[in-house]
Amino acid sequence: MLQTMTEIASETRKSPEAIAKEMGREMRNTNAVSVRDGVAVIKVSGPLFRYANLMTRICGATSYELFAQDFNKCLQQSEIKAILLDIDSPGGEVNGCSEIADMIFKARGIKPIIAYASGSCCSGAYWIASACDKILASDTAILGSIGVVSIFEKDDDAKTIEIVSSQSPNKRPDVNTDEGRAKIQARVDELAEVFIAKVARNRGITAVDVVKDFGAGDVSVGQYAVRNGLADGLTSFEDIVSSLNQEKTFMNEPNQMSAEDIKKAERERMAQVFASESSRGKETTAHALLAMTDLSAANICCILDTIPSVKQNAFEAAMSELRNPDIQPAQEAQEESTEAVAERIASLVGE
Q1: Distance CA 316, CA 2 (A)
Q2: What is the pLDDT of residues 181-213, one digit of tens each?
Q3: Does the predicted model carry a pTM greater than 0.70?
Q4: How far apart are CA 86 and CA 97, in angstroms?
Q5: Do 131 and 180 share a domain, yes or no?
Q6: Are residues 237 and 262 both part of a single domain?
Q7: Which among 288, 305, 322 is the end of a domain?
Q8: How far is Cα 123 from Cα 94, in angstroms, rounded to an integer?
């Protein structure tokens, strides 16, 4: 926003219409949607709650209820060509989060849906982001915190007496006992299994990979999130809007890029990576990133810069200095007739 304001101040000849176009216009009958050149930007900020109320509005929170309404209106509007979720949220309520993520996942293919982590994209916010076609992030964004926390508070000084029906002894586990804590732990673990399974489905990997590579509840920043698979690339908000507008053009002209153009671009991407000093001693990792991701050469080099080079052992170093021997056949091969080959084979069988 500061960059936009600076540009507006330095170009005083811009018309109000041009300024409005850059700032985006509010989409009618929505809660938190602005439109820029056919791209609908939906804000996902602050704590996440299932239902909207006065407190969510005052505290700058996001409700799943209003988000769902905004998202579905963007899907239905023909003038909206792509949807961009501008996310800066630490997460929030479990209740309703899975339904929102499933709604986004099922909408894949209707219109491009991109999640942009501008600040925090953690816990429930990451669950939602993972359902989009791609997750892009700023270099200072924080992503991850995949897991579930359950908090119990007492409003008194343990003076409350609760009587639970004898048929339902597990209705109120006592957190002050080992048995009670174990029951609550099992409940939280079951919720986390749902969370992890959905993230794995959304990102096209296994639940084991999510647990192993996505921090086990920790967070990753910027390029490290890309390196670990939490995000697909680093970019800026303005670059995403520009790219989505270009993608809109490609959708209107699907034959604009030929197969040969795509192959040429891929060859150039590979050449840029392997020509960089960043790939020295890390060729195997570079090959994997090129084959398994759509990251640009620049982003791949950024990731490679964070990985220490693999040093050759003494044997490999010595072998790399030896030239291949110049081996030649001892004599020219002589052609054999079909009959001679048959006789030779028959003699071997006889032996």
Answers
A1: 54
A2: 888 888 888 889 999 999 999 998 899 999 888
A3: no
A4: 17
A5: yes
A6: no
A7: 305
A8: 9
